[in-house]
Amino acid sequence: MFNFTGLPPLALYIHIPWCVRKCPYCDFNSHEAPSTLPEFEYVDAMLRDLEQDLPLVWGRAITSIFIGGGTPSLFSAEALDRLFSGLRARLKLLPDIEITLEANPGTVEVGKFRDFRALGINRLSIGVQSFNDTQLKALGRIHGAREAIAAAEAAHAAGFSDFNLDLMHGLPGQSVADGEADMRQAIALKPSHLSYYQLTLEPNTWFYNHPPSLPDDEHLADIEEAGQALLAGAGYAQYEVSAYAQPGQRCAHNLNYWEYGDYLGIGAGAHGKITLPAEQRILRRARIKNPRDYQASAGTPAAYSEEHPKPVDAAFEFMLNALRLKQGFAPYLFQERAGIPLSRIQTALQQAEKEGLLEWSIQRIAASPHGWRYLNDLMQHFLPEE
Questions:
Q1: What secondary structure letter does DSSP report for 25?
Q2: What is the rounded CA–CA span in Å between residue 33 and residue 71?
Q3: Cα angle at 176 between 171 and 178, to 5 degrees?
């Protein structure tokens, strides 16, 4: 039985599923774009979709919006203006709301970024992945190093003081020197935030079925540690497993996920999580993935499936997310967000602490330096019993 002690923040995720071309490592819900994007039809479908979730969140303010994909920067400013007009008519947006748009370097120019900024979008996340033309080609990216640099420069020119660069390491044929060169170039572009993560071979991707030759574990560790040293030297603090930020520039939207906040999800393949204290339950909704089917069914129950996590599942989900944060979490958040007393996992906490994987005090619960290195081992302590 759940017993929530408060409502978490509420965010909004918007999924735009089209890309110029599907990358061989990508396992997100993305589809090759048709010659003419159905921008306005898709926006109208998302607004119909949103309306059926509104009764679940009456009176609650939206703290952040993230537009992901796919490649949302394929959409025109006119289509996004229609979207934001619809959102503002239906939702209460906080005055200082963070609004992020994902962009790929091959699909942007300064004029488009300026139009996005004028709409109220105040943060960009640019998927550069690398500044090495050979490795970009191996990754199946449609841009080269020159376009990646130009995209970051365009963000500055358009007035974005807050933007993220996505940078991968452990790429096919990558050396430590290659990784350092990528990181130095990324830092030179002065993003406020960097997402720095290892290329992994995910099921249902081309790379999973046709794996490229990747650096071995020793070289992977050397590449990552070299990149982290450069980040630290440039003033980027690691606050999550793959997230690094300048002071005051952490991503509010992603922090909400990691602290087990609530979020609406609209668009093909989008997921949402809503806490319902009056009903003592958590509701998860997942939208259907195919864009055409989604547009046809948006606004009806046929557009989504539902799940209702049990308390034991919510407890594990909370720990799985919150322990990714370097700072950990305040103990009171566990019952507020997971809906059960912290005492329910006290034995697991004590055992993880005894093994040196966890640090536990009145103020915070966090992975120890040893636990941070072996997060998978730490998470095993909180798995639901069969």
A1: T
A2: 9
A3: 65
